[in-house]
Amino acid sequence: MEHKKIIIAIDGYSSTGKSTVAKQLAKALKYIYVDTGAMYRAITLFAMRKDIINESGFDQEKLEKALPEIRIEFKINTTTGIAEVWLNGENVEQEIRTLAVSNYVSPIAAVSAVRKKLVEQQVQLGKEKGIVMDGRDIGTVVFPDAELKLFMTATAKDRAERRFLELQERGEDVTYEDVLKNVVNRDHIDSTRKDSPLRKASDAIQIDNSTLTLKDQFDHILKLAQTVINNKD
Ligand code: DC
Description:
The chain is α/β, with parallel strands linked by helices.
């Protein structure tokens, strides 16, 4: 008998390794992986390029007016097999990962019109199930009925160290202190905003990966997913 496909929702603080686990799970289960943070980052990049957000402020009304012009798509990179994000026909997968984008993304993600646009697209992407989606509101807002919900946490220090090494590897000129500040600041804005604040869904399983190795964490989560899939009728 063929197993029924499920929706796996992964939420949690920034740099808790959500995307690493989500990618591993999607690969093992042959599911689609959707990185919703990349969608908020792509809109942020659009706003930065149009000077809608910069050091002197954020013109929210201008962004809301421009939203219909923004087209976000995921396309599979045929070399890596992983979906990358495209903004109005341009591959922006690398550019959205800079600290500059991370520094502006939380105010953009707090705008209800932005969330509405992206949540609609995310719901469509999950229509056929067989999907692993990570973000901040996946188990609470996008897929409140997801069959498996995970909530990832780790200390701010662990997370900042991880993100710092990633950015350094990519050749970005950043300090650990700047990265830590960004992580703490984003956590604060993401969990205190009015619309869809980051919180653990009551039926989500919490995973603290400060102490788990990547392999132990993955083995544990894959087992959880397989149990849910096997018990689905
Ligand atoms: O997962 P990430 O760090 O790439 O996400 C970037 C930002 O986007 C994060 O600080 C908050 C926002 N975000 C959100 O509000 N809702 C989501 N589902 C995903 C990301």
